[in-house]
Amino acid sequence: IRKTMEVSPIPVVTVQTVPYDDQRPGTNGLRKKTVVFESKRNYLQNFIQSVLSSIDLRDRQGCTMVVGGDGRYFSRTATEVIVQMAAANGIGRLVIGHNGIMSTPAASCIIRKIKAIGGIILTASRNPGGPGGDFGIKFNVANGGPSPESVTDKIYQISKTLEEYAICPDLRIDLARLGRQDFDLENKFKPFRVEIVDSVEIYLNMLRSIFDFSAIKGLLTGPDQLKIRIDAMNGVMGPYVRRILCDELGAPANSAVSCVPLEDFGGQYPDPSLPYAASLVEAMKGGEFGLGAALDGDGDRYMILGQNGFFVNPSDSVAVIAANLSCIPYFRQMGVRGFARSMPTSTALDRVAKAMKVALYETPTGWKFFGNLMDSGRCSLGGEESFGTGSDHIREKDGLWAVLAWLSIVAARKQSVEEIVREHWTKLGRNYICRFDYEGVDPRAAHYMIRDLEAVITDKAFASQKFAVGSHVYSVEKADSFEYTDPVDGTVARNQGLRIIFTDGSRIIFRLGGTGSSGATIRIYAESYEQDPEKHNRETQAVLGPLIAIALKISDIHERTGRRGPTVIT
């Protein structure tokens, strides 16, 4: 390992700055249009200083931090600034992904493995990249998971009063060179160390300890192999997919598509959903592939498709994985402790929990809520309707983990994706669910709509309300503004979405989205449960039409937002 000890120590400089008042991190870090980070004076430096200052000085001195990201435009510049500022702020060692690239699950894995104090992940997840796209900075804590509210609040408070930041402007590192680089700093008694690591290798070794690789390899190779198509959407996951699925597990090289990480994701949204992964959907409709998957920009979200384009709803995906955990060695060894889902996710997982006699936790949206449950040994698996699933092997949702979980289930059960899902419905019933997103809504209009709607549904009179749509009558059983008391530390999260639950188990949910870069997003969810297998083949929109009609009527959303309909339906 070559050492690059500078001849004269590198100076540490303190720079005067003016605070910004809009650096409050959302559910997944600070996300803005790239131009904000790129052109607002010290915008990036201010936020990085606020993150570093949020770590107690005693803990910061000489500690280790992880840095990575999805490789989107502006990441290189940002990584350089983070390195220079971490050095100046007394961080002892940085572990950085090769070329600055590291998936979010791999970052979580590495933070935990090397017992780092935390990590800075440069990503805006499934949002578009490039000069006209979005950029984001996310701080994960020592358990490898997203910052809890107490930490993001602290970062925000610091950012509002910041007057200066510390930086080593002359410090230069080579992100392309694997290995160790040491730097002598002025007034620092120990050298500052940077390690550039192959995160793919580290993440692969973790997966190898969880899954039965030979069973998956047997499925993907040999005479009656399962042909798969995995679309990395030109995000961070390309190198991971190639190395793990192709080189290690034997899938043919042409199974992996869009595997070159691009700064603008090829001009597409790196979002693994039906509208944005249209080319994968088309390829699957040809019938040649038995399983298809798309992975998002930073690798924590995924979508599964069966042969002929059979779509596995994310709420069903987590339920099916939960019901089949015994196909995965990790769970045979560790046992299954409990399941968790975000409140808008369908109740399909609840039915599995009940059948398996394990606890079910319903949390607000945001993976950080699962972290506490997992850390305290209460939860083995969690899932969100927004295409995220993960287990307690790390503290983030994990797209490739979920794909390997599906491959493990297919290998063990020797059935197709569609057969597995349909058999699940036959056993436990089918939960139809859909989501309407109204994006870029005027924030004031969105706020007042939700406020007024809350007044309507929490009024005493609403509790006995009945809605007749066609031949169907829906009777309200309960309506509230969802709040969550963390069973581990007792903290309370309020105003986490409005929900109306009907006597037949149907639900309507209204929620303001939390991680957009412009305007507000209003999400409306509708869910209904169908036990009768004769009725498991219906069109989701046809089944949920009456509930959507009720939702539109009581919220008056089109009138209030000036919209004719949703931006996206999933």
From TrEMBL:
GO CC term (a single one): adherens junction
InterPro entries attached to this UniProt entry: A-D-PHexomutase_a/b/a-I, A-D-PHexomutase_a/b/a-I/II/III, A-D-PHexomutase_a/b/a-II, A-D-PHexomutase_a/b/a-III, A-D-PHexomutase_C_sf, Alpha-D-phosphohexomutase_SF, PGM
Pfam family, one: PGM_PMM_I
Main subcellular localisation: cytoplasm
Compartmental location: Cytoplasm
SUPFAM superfamilies: Phosphoglucomutase, C-terminal domain, Phosphoglucomutase, first 3 domains
Protein keywords: Cytoplasm, Phosphoprotein
NCBIfam families for this protein: PRK07564.1-1 (NF005737)
Name the record gives this protein: Phosphoglucomutase 5
Lineage of the species this protein comes from: Eukaryota, Metazoa, Chordata, Craniata, Vertebrata
